Write the structure tokens for this entry.
Amino acid sequence: MIRSSRENDEDNKIYLRNKIEEHWNRVAAIKELIQERKQMGNYREQVHIKKDSTGHGYRNLFGRFLDKDVEYVLIEDPYIRTFHQCQNFLLLCELLMKSCDNLRRIRLKTSKDAESGANQKDWFYNLETDLQKYGIQLTVIYSPANRLSRHIILSSGWIIEISRGLRRRIISSV
């Protein structure tokens, strides 16, 4: 039996509608699974940043995890020592201060810089003084670099694992 082109068009429409519905159902199931994993603390997201690429500010990378639920932040990075690293840390502190209304404490665990130790200490002291004006206490703890990993822990339960300084991040919930 030969079908008319109109019948073929109708069959194709039905087929495509069914496929679209299957995909939408799959999208809904994936969204539901992500929500469940977030609530259970098993959600993981990985962000890859190519070398020398730009436009990856802290707000774009993990700003969505910074909110009123964050009361304290624990940062461990052995290499917040040179001027540009301290500048990056300052930018992170500014974002935390602006985004986390209930933020009261930031603790940084890093290593001492043998070459510019006095400058490093002065930078942290100045930042500590500035943050106190906003009711935020900064504590800097020094530890040998080989004993430190790189991560940021938010009191809201999110852990941001850093693979190369305050540049590349892997984000997961606890």
